[in-house]
Amino acid sequence: MQQAKKGDKVKVHYHGKLTTGETFDSSEGRDPLPFEIGGGMVIKGFDDGVTGMTVGEKKTITIPADEAYGPVNPDMVIEMPKDRLPQDMEVEVGMPLVMSDPQGQQFQVTVKEITEDKIVLDANHPLAGKDLVFDLELVEIEGGSPLIIMP
């Protein structure tokens, strides 16, 4: 059977969990995730986990934080005076917001803390610093060559 390798376009069903068992993403009820192995479309550990699988194979992989979204970077935690927010804006801890850097590039932050005069925002990926567990099922290798059995 053909094994998935770098450069192959594949389709994968997945269930992503934290090591605590809490689900953070799943393809359940949706089409399988299409991507090219090694194409930079998914995190390195996910690419590595699918490599070598055959169509129909299921397995569970654990991806350390360094091969997922990296460690939490304390430099990406920003303190901002509360008066820089729009007057009518209600913010809560855990709320996602979008900010712009001086070049106009937008990025998502999460409200981490609110005090009387400041707001603490975290620009790290929400899964940074976390080991991830994925249940995988390789559904298809696109363009895979058919198996030919000679008599």
Automatic annotation (TrEMBL):
<keyword id="KW-0697">Rotamase</keyword>
<keyword id="KW-0963">Cytoplasm</keyword>
<comment type="function">
    <text>Also involved in hydrogenase metallocenter assembly, probably by participating in the nickel insertion step. This function in hydrogenase biosynthesis requires chaperone activity and the presence of the metal-binding domain, but not PPIase activity.</text>
</comment>
<dbReference type="GO" id="GO:0005737">
    <property type="term" value="C:cytoplasm"/>
</dbReference>
<dbReference type="InterPro" id="IPR046357">
    <property type="entry name" value="PPIase_dom_sf"/>
</dbReference>
<dbReference type="InterPro" id="IPR001179">
    <property type="entry name" value="PPIase_FKBP_dom"/>
</dbReference>
<feature type="domain" description="PPIase FKBP-type">
    <location>
        <begin position="7"/>
        <end position="101"/>
    </location>
</feature>
<dbReference type="GO" id="GO:0042026">
    <property type="term" value="P:protein refolding"/>
</dbReference>
<comment type="similarity">
    <text>Belongs to the FKBP-type PPIase family.</text>
</comment>
<keyword id="KW-0143">Chaperone</keyword>
<dbReference type="GO" id="GO:0003755">
    <property type="term" value="F:peptidyl-prolyl cis-trans isomerase activity"/>
</dbReference>
<dbReference type="Pfam" id="PF00254">
    <property type="entry name" value="FKBP_C"/>
</dbReference>
<protein>
    <recommendedName>
        <fullName>Peptidyl-prolyl cis-trans isomerase</fullName>
        <ecNumber>5.2.1.8</ecNumber>
    </recommendedName>
</protein>
<keyword id="KW-0413">Isomerase</keyword>
